[in-house]
Write a sequence for this structure.
């Protein structure tokens, strides 16, 4: 393997001879750029970022230290939107530290010029995972193979999306939620919830809560809040009232209450509407 070195540093980056690196690129110490990679425009890579081979990074793009990028990854291209041109100005993409992007993962640039598409720290995007334009993805998020986030989605910390799960544009997924494989998230998924099928809340993410070190008493309170607020037909104000009443005894329930208060889209719940199915075009809206 032929390598050429550039930039004066205590641990100089290494760039394969077949790679194309923009003169606008800023590379941290220990960066490794493999064969066939392209860095176009203002691309900033933190220390010890490795781009294995045949990836395309387009600026404005910043990537935090220690991130690993596999072949076929494309980061920073324009939004898949009929009104957006390939050359339109954009705030681009900002990615945190310690992330992993497996083969063919994609993150699209923002349509805005002041706020980038954001992916936090220690996120793991598996094969063919897609983050749409203007999304906000928190830290320690896992997106399993073939998952996709529509534009402007908001994914909180420690969320897991099972294989093939799809999140509708502008939809929120709360902290430590678990989204089942193949699920269609067309309504906001509350924190700590387990959501499957078409926005059906089947329970709480007990495994995730335990792994996060949450005490049993607090898990019990979250389970009670889920049962009372999301497992029976209620109006949104009724749901909010129940969560507010339970919030004083649990910071996690308080987080759930704040999540419901802060959204405008329907909420994923754990009951079937009479005469409706989870596969109808309209989500099972809880707005009444």
């Amino acid at each position: 393997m032929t390598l050429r070195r550039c930039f004066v540093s205590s641990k100089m980056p290494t760039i394969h001879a077949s790679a194309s690196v923009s003169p606008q690129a800023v590379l941290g110490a220990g960066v490794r750029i493999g064969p066939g990679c392209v860095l176009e425009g203002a691309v900033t890579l933190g220390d010890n970022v490795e781009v294995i081979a045949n990836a395309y990074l387009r600026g404005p793009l910043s990537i935090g230290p220690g991130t690993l990028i596999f072949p076929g990854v494309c980061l920073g291209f324009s939004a898949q939107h009929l009104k957006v041109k390939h050359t339109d100005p954009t705030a681009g993409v900002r990615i945190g530290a310690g992330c992993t992007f497996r083969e063919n993962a994609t993150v699209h640039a923002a349509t805005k010029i002041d706020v980038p598409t954001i992916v936090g720290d220690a996120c793991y995007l598996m094969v063919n995972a897609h983050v749409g334009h203007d999304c906000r993805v928190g830290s320690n998020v896992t997106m399993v193979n073939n998952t996709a986030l529509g534009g402007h989605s908001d994914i909180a910390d420690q969320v897991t999306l099972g294989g093939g799960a799809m999140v509708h544009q502008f939809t929120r997924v709360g902290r430590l939620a678990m989204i089942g494989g193949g699920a269609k998230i067309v309504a906001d998924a509350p924190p700590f919830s387990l959501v499957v099928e078409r926005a059906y809340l089947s329970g709480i993410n007990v495994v995730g809560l335990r792994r996060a070190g949450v005490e049993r008493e607090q898990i019990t309170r979250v389970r009670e809040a889920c049962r009372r607020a999301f497992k029976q037909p209620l109006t949104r104000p009724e749901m909010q009232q129940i969560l507010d009443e339970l919030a004083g005894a649990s910071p996690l329930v308080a987080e759930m209450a704040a999540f419901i208060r802060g959204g405008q889209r329907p909420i994923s719940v754990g009951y079937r509407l009479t005469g409706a199915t989870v596969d109808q075009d309209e989500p099972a809206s809880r707005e009444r």
Notes: The chain is about 15% helix and 25% strand. Residues 1-9, 274-288 have pLDDT under 50 and may be disordered.
